[in-house]
Amino acid sequence: MTTTPVSQQSLKPTADPVAGTPRPRPGPRTGLRPLTALGAWPRRLAAGTRAALPLAAALLIWYLLTANDVVLWLRFDKVPGPVEVFHTLKGQLTSGGYYQDLLASLRRILLGFGLAALSGVAIGMAIGRSRVVHALVRPLIEVARPIPAIALVPLAILMFPSGEQGIVFITFFAAFFPVAVSTIHAMKTLPKVWEEAARTMGARRLSVLAHVVLPGAMPGIFSGLSVSMGVAWICVISAEMISGQFGIGYYTWQSYGLLDYSGVIVGMLSIGILGWGTAWLVERLGSRVNRWLPRNAR
Amino acid sequence: MSAGARIRLEGLKLAFGDMSAAEVDLEVRPGEIVVLLGPSGCGKSTILRALAGLLTPTAGRAEVDGEPVGGTDTVCAMVFQEDALLPWRSAARNVEYALKLRGVPRGQRRQEAAELLAQVGLEDFFDHLPGQLSGGMRQRVQLARTLATRPRVMLMDEPFGALDAQTRSEMQQLLISVWRQYGTTILFVTHDVDEALLLGDRVVLLSPRPAVVREIVDIPGPRRPGAQFEPEFARRRYEILAWLGDAPPAELSPEGA
Prior knowledge:
The structure holds two protein chains of two kinds.
Chain A: H1 40-67, E1 71-72, E2 74-75, H2 82-93, H3 96-129, H4 131-144, H5 153-159, H6 163-189, H7 192-200, H8 205-243, H9 248-257, H10 261-289, H11 294-297
Antiparallel strand pairs in A: 1-2
Helix pairs in contact in A: 2-10, 3-4, 3-6, 3-8, 3-9, 5-6, 6-8, 8-9, 8-10, 9-10
Chain B: E1 7-16, E2 19-28, E3 33-37, H1 44-51, E4 59-64, E5 67-68, E6 76-79, H2 91-102, H3 106-119, H4 135-148, E7 153-157, H5 165-182, E8 185-190, H6 193-199, E9 202-206, E10 211-218, H7 231-244
Parallel strand pairs in B: 2-10, 3-8, 3-9, 6-7, 7-8
Antiparallel strand pairs in B: 1-2, 1-4, 4-5, 9-10
Helix pairs in contact in B: 2-3, 2-4, 3-4, 4-5
Domain ABC transporter (chain B): 7-233
Organism (chain B): Streptomyces cahuitamycinicus
Keywords (chain B): ATP-binding, Nucleotide-binding, Transport
């Protein structure tokens, strides 16, 4: 009986081989839940209300403190109130310069962050997977990492032909390390069995990287990307304040120079909202890519 | 292509650093199911890993159909104990990846994956992620994925070890029916004596680390339905258990066979 099955020359099955085996029954869940179901809207509305509540409370406190010129060690008598800021904002919204500043900052962020994300993942994977690269590159990264990106402003001004490129470089520099470091860690925590399974099925190096290592590391990579986006905003704004010509950081600093304090607050709020928006985008993309994580899959 | 391949392990020595893990001589006939049985941690799995090309032997040879094992060839496919599926790919896409690695054109992969999954009884679960499947179903997907590479040898590393008794028995039946269909050679590692006696043509008893072949038990009339209720089965089971418990009965000396 041991060698008779060899008579079957083709590996293609000819009959149902599991006719006698009990099959598992389909459960109530027969597929992935669609991402944008109509039923999600009431839930989203509730979530929106919950997010608006603390913001409204902060607005109210701000209004009360400034409208009554409260001086309690902290002095609110010179701080512009919400109404004043609203009027400045309205003025800005109708002027082209404000949008130009917003777009300039967004462009720098997306460029710097995008470059950092790509190179951080690539270099992080190389360091995490190759002992040679680890030995050669890791020391460089460890030395460069503690340097605050803002300390590079003088160097950036010296090196780059335009301030624009310098600012993108500084943003890139700051955003690079969180991505690279979290990618290196993700490489180390990847279950070995995924790669081994792929290799026994005949996967070569590149296939393993593209189909096993990269998707498997995505949860770790995205936690790095979230941190990195926050750091990128800090650095783009600071760099703009020091050496920019446009940009929301430049606008904020310029308003301060012109003693336009409500302009400063308009700038701050704009940064807050833009930062929130980009963080939301990263988060959203991450939960889409990492849909398979146990807490999302169920 | 003939279905099963012949395996020859000749003076195969495996080690982790200075720690010897296994020293094995073994011959497996094409299309045979050979079960490696030994105390846990004895190095059973390392033997499979060497055959899969995941571990380089320190001495000796491992041959599949006369060709030395090396690197990544799909002649030997491995089924792991658990969670070897790519969790971000659905059941069907896990199988499709194996098909892609075999070089099946993109257009045919879905169809072939569907056929393979239907063969292991998962026709209603194509789009489920591994995290949405039970342990038994995940092992079914793994079996389908392994079959997708058209292996001539299946190396199974305690594939049903994490399953409950009922599911395990279902999986053993499924494995046998798939094996009858494909006729691949199977090298099966377990520490479950019943499983070994139910599946194997021969059961290889290994010593504690470093794993050395101590005894090869031939199973006459293997995989007979209801075999586990016969006195012969019970006797063999007792002998092997006694041997594993380090108290060999007189008629089964460690030097035997």
